[in-house]
Automatic annotation (TrEMBL):
InterPro entries according to UniProt: ACCD_DCysDesulf, TrpB-like_PALP_sf
Family from the record: Belongs to the ACC deaminase/D-cysteine desulfhydrase family.
PANTHER family assigned: 1-AMINOCYCLOPROPANE-1-CARBOXYLATE DEAMINASE-RELATED
Molecular function via GO: D-cysteine desulfhydrase activity
Keyword annotations of the record: Pyridoxal phosphate
Cofactor requirement: pyridoxal 5'-phosphate
DNA repair keyword on record: no
Protein name stated in the entry: Uncharacterized protein
Length: 83
């Protein structure tokens, strides 16, 4: 029985504006998916919040490339920046 090779993907882009965050996410995914395909991976695991755009883009890219996709989504606790 064949086992699935998997790659772990983290969704932190580190950018501030929505447009630059989307561009950084797309660039990051392009790089990570290229690496995953080069290594023969057939499943991608992404971790993020319930409304994670990174997770959505990862799932879409997996579907387009014919890769399996496992999303580990959690309800994130709101930040309290008023301290």
């Amino acid at each position: 029985m064949a086992t699935a090779q998997e790659t772990f993907v983290s969704g932190r882009s580190g950018t501030t504006s929505a447009r630059s965050a989307a561009a950084a996410t797309n660039f990051k995914l392009e790089f990570l998916f290229g690496q995953a395909l080069a290594e023969g991976c057939d499943t991608v695991i992404a971790v993020g919040g319930l409304q994670s755009n990174f997770a959505r883009l990862t799932a879409a890219a997996c579907a387009k490339l014919g890769l399996g996709c496992e999303l580990v989504l959690s309800q994130m606790v709101p930040r309290d920046d008023h301290s």
